[in-house]
Amino acid sequence: MYKISKLKNGLNLITIPLVGTKAITALVLLPIGSRYENRKISGVSHFVEHMMFKGTLKRPSAIDLTRELESVGADFNAFTGKEYTGYYVKIDSAKQELAFDLLSDMLFNSKMDEVEMKKEKGVIVEELRMYEDNPSMFINLMFDRLLFGDCPLGWDEGGSATTVNGLDRQELWDYYKSAYEPQNMTLVVSGNIDQKKLKKLVEKYYAEQKNIKSKDKRTKSTFDKYTFPASVSKLADRVIAQERKVDQAHLILGFPGFDHNHKHRHALGLMSYILGGGMSSRLFIEVREKRGLAYMINSGNGTFRDTGMSYVRAGLDPARLPEALGVIQDELKKMAENGVTEQELRDAKNSVAGRLALSMEESSAQAEWYAKQFWFMKTIETPAQMLQKIRKVTLKEVQTVAKKVINFDLMRLAVIGPVKKEDVIKMI
Asked: 128 is in which domain, residue-wise?
């Protein structure tokens, strides 16, 4: 069972003891991401994440950091999203002090060396270009831009070549210091935990860290809330197409969705799973199995603190794009008009339960689960508690949600392929 405590400096600690593993995962998650930025510093959260690995006062270079972890076979990395930034080390529990030492050193003592910063600008710009050159990745950014417009939710989490190259060391340092405080962190430790040893390590590496007095603090609430426009925009404003000479067209068709804590979020999740969550889903059968229109076809949802999205994505032969769009829209209309069957709902609940059970076998998955629950949910739910709520979802609730979300007046469509926007509009 998990346990939550708070250090005197405000740092939150969550422990999740697990049996049957020799590993331990230490994850620090901050409720700060790209939507907390303005246009001038777009990409700074991601940039700071990169710089965490470029040297500290104790470990001056990137090699000093990575060599220690790799020498003991540790798994380590970091990630930046629109609403969070995380750093983790998964390691043999016998070597766990290294994980706590190194994470603390990175988070509180990074140098943000100006020479390293200038070099890293080139690395990050190449990362952005890599995503842009890959249609299956870039289509996600196109859809975000289309759905949310010119605001942080619609921008690339990594910024742009212009904003990245425009950042100076002081801006990076100020952002780092305004966000990376103990009171703005949750340390989650899961796996083979020795409580006495853990207490000593947390006190040694985290309890004495200080919060910095800053006028420009960034906390979980310092972002601009987003509300979808009340008026319905014309179709031409809800379609975007990037004409490229590629062998496979990529599309995302979607609608405004729900926030993290919406009362119908589980019903929407089950609806999306039935629509395109597996090889027995409606879209997989109709688009791929019956007609051979696409190799990749699925559906899903994205949630944020104040809003969300529901979408269908596919990769297919450009010549068959009109037919595929027709089938996808037909299946969405059927879902909105008729809902789902008892068998579909029962199977979806069982499948979600089975997949969740498998995913929770890893200490790293457990750590991320509870960290995100802590920062984004009104109350923490264990996987078992969440499944109880999923089990209670009714056919009527799914149909109500389907009718609410699948609104073609609010539909957005992003396409990459050898096709013009005006031709895409004619297809729908």
From this structure: 3-205
> Quick one: pLDDT band at residue 349, thresholds 50, 70, 90?
very high
Give, for 287, the enclosing helix (H) or strand (E): none
Reported residue count of the chain is 428
Residues 262 and 379 in one domain: yes
pLDDT tens-digit profile of 258-299?
Answer: 999 999 999 999 999 999 999 999 999 999 999 999 999 999
CATH of the domain at 54: 3.30.830.10
- Region for residue 65 given its phi and psi (left: phi exceeds 0; alpha: psi -120 to 50; beta: otherwise): alpha
Q: Which residues contact 303 (CB under 8 A, 6 or more apart)?
A: 257, 258, 259, 260, 262, 265
By C-alpha distance, which of 165, 267, 222, 282 is closest to 35? Answer: 222
Same domain, residue pair 264 and 182? no
Tell me if 221 is assigned to some domain: no
Catalytic residue among 49, 83, 181, 344: 49
Confidence bin at 328 (pLDDT 50/70/90): very high
pLDDT at residue 251, as a whole number: 98
Q: Which residue has the tokens 């529990």?
A: 93
Residues 411 and 263 in one domain: yes
pLDDT of residue 232: 86
Through-space distance between the first and last CA atoms of the chain, rounded to whole angstroms: 51
Query: Which tens digits make up the pLDDT trace of 68-78?
Result: 999 999 999 99
Q: Is residue 411 part of a domain?
A: yes
- Residue 157 and residue 25 share a domain: yes
Same domain assignment for residues 418 and 354: yes
Mean pLDDT value across residues 198-210: 97
For residue 357, is it within any domain? yes
> Residue 217's pLDDT is what?
81
CA dist 153 → 147, 162, 284, 307, 411 (Å): 9, 18, 29, 10, 18
Question: Rounded to an integer, what distance in angstroms lies between the CA atom of residue 272 and that of residue 282?
Answer: 10
Q: Determine the pLDDT at residue 350.
A: 98
Total structural domains within the chain: 2
* 337 catalytic per annotation: no
